[in-house]
Design a protein that fits this description.
Chain lengths: 323, 503
Amino acid sequence: MSALSLLPARRPVPGVFVALTLTLAIGWLVVLLDGGQLFNQSTTVSLLHVAAGLGLVAVGQTLVILGGSLDLSVAYVISLSTLVAAETMNGSDGAVLPAIGLVLAVSAGIGLFNGLLVTKLRVNAFIATLGVGLLLKGYLDNGYDGPAGTTAPSLVQSLGYQRVGPVPVSFLLLVAVTAAAWFALSRTRFGHHLIAVGGDPEVARLSGVRNDRVLVTAHMLCSMCAGLAGIYLASRLGSGAPRVGTEGLYDLESIAAVVIGGTALAGGRGGVVGTVGGVLLLASIDAIFNQLEVDAFFKQVIRGAIIIAAVAVYARRAMRKAA
Amino acid sequence: MSDPRPVPLLTLRGIGKSFLGVRVLDGVDLDVAPGEVHAVVGENGAGKSTLMKIVSGGYTPDEGTVEFAGEPRTFRGPRDAQRAGVGIIHQEFNLLPERTVAENVYLGHEPVRRGLVDRRGMLDRTRQLLASIGETALPADARVGQLGVAQQQVVEIAKALALDARLLIMDEPTAALADHEVELLYGLVRRLQERGIGLLYVSHRLAEVFDLSGRITVLKDGRRVTTVDTADATADELVRHMVGRELSSYYPDRADADDPGPVRLSVRDAGNRKLRGVSLELRAGQVLGIGGLQGSGRSALARALFGVSPFSTGEVTLAGKPVRLRSPRAAMRAGIAYVTEDRKAEGIVPRQSVLDNALLASRAVFAARSGHAARTERVRELLAAVEVRAAGDDQEIRFLSGGNQQKVVLARWLALNPRILLFDEPTRGIDVGAKSAIHNLIRRLAQDGAAVLMISSDLPELLGMSDRIVVMRDGRIAGELPAGATEEDVMALAVGTVREAAA
């Protein structure tokens, strides 16, 4: 009974925010030396736009990863969602709400399918969601060669481009979704059970948690988040785009953001706030390199290095904790 | 025997259970009254765990009845038993280290207000629960992973109580505790008793059974031998009940005790995280038996000698020369072989062929290019020599019987010409016929000059095979016995009713 063990559990500030602050500080300095300005209106706005799109997906991804699962189909769900949204609206402001409803219903259906594959058929989440993603890819590749449909102008104006000061409405949407997810994780039974299932499925089961139901719900929420990201992208692009999800690497980038944000890839530990930190970090690096006009390939190298470094830091920390 | 016992909380009558045709429980009767601590003792494999799993809903009995709180019950699973009021504290805790005490205690039935988890209420109720068992020092909002083992055990107990457990099963509750923590557990058990909770207390350690229990039931080979009032029982009597079997099977002749071979390996005052002050000698031509209860450090000893979790203190000499065995590879190069206890997880590669399994160690140790054909040929000969029965050398090993798998593992090691062989439960899960084949092989290896160390929980095997027996307890050597020792001698050392040879 050491004194240390009597301290109440503090939820530590994820290290990602320290990394984010450092990155922004260094980036600001380097861009300044280069003769630019990192925090001018247009870079800030575009940074937050990038963060909004990736963030919506990553918050959903956080839920499934916390539960010990994973979703690789999100990129295709995003592409599909842009098309469903744009084609349903077909340029008409009156069809915005039905379109949003339809997107959420379709994506929830895909999430349900993912969840059932993972829980009832016991297919490994990696394989199951990859397979579902490929199914969607087949549909998209077969039906679409390029942009299709037209997003309603009112949605383009509001969600796509409207701002409150330097903050885009889309980023506010991300803040709202993050807050809802945070609330669900800390204040609902679902959240407690999800983290328990990810932490140790056997412990959860023996404590009376209905593991399958919890995981299926998480998968549905994850897909719906991807659907929201699709609606946002459709409002940015003005139409449906059959490859926007995969070209944006939303599947792997969302997982990277979750991991950088301190959520354990095996589940059971972490949260959405850290994920948003991870998203902002990735978006900041993007912004800085764009300002410096760094080669795109080199940018990828740096991103890869950051992801590996983040995971290594967390692994070391876990090791220290175990010792 | 004076006061009439209250209505029992739990009554078991004629409980029987078989696995794959092997009877592990047979006609067991047992009852627990509210506020009673009923201890269940017995050797490894006596059926204690199976019985506890039946009470807590892990298994359903093949025969007999379970009555709980006066009603016949068939628990369909652990949750069913929990809801009825049966809690179980396993040796390995069912807790989430990343979550707080309160989150763990109320996992699965979090208190809710207006549809949301009432975090403050959950903390308050956890604090009350902890206070009611006298654990005011344990903060309800601490992360469980930060807590010590004893505190985690308290959390487990609180978790059971939060579900209104009326019967609590404790399976070797002190196994993971340090000495001063055991005292705390005693206090806790007494407070639970005062609340009228019935306790089934499974333990190897007779001292604590005498300290805590009101009655003791002894199990042996799946049967209830006796149930005694603790006040009337003596340790010697219990040990006699726990063992005392006929030495029925045949064992090969022992080595000549008057003509011991040279010392092949000696360990002096060695220790690591699980072992302390271990000293022993392995001699050529002899089988040294290692006795003791599960968790007493027997496997830790073999793993230390084989370099899996090496000794951190003390000294090991091989044929007179000091050595450091820092990895299994180093141990293999030094001529040591290790046949592991858990054959499925550590002994075989299930989906590879018999031949690949037998070649595993040779391929790992020798350079890839040279002598490949000769080695394969030798392994084939060895497989024939140990009489492996398989459809062919290319059959996947998982389709073989346990005994034949073990022979393949043995052939794997013999291909390296080991001078020292470590066997951990060499005949566990192996049928009787193959057992004696393994026994004969072990003896023949010793006769050919190898030094053998054999860990066994099977007392007749330990007594029948060993030229000397070292008994372990709590990571130390409790004593050494010559050939011809009795089961009582071994058990007495293993459970600690006699003073250690070297204190």
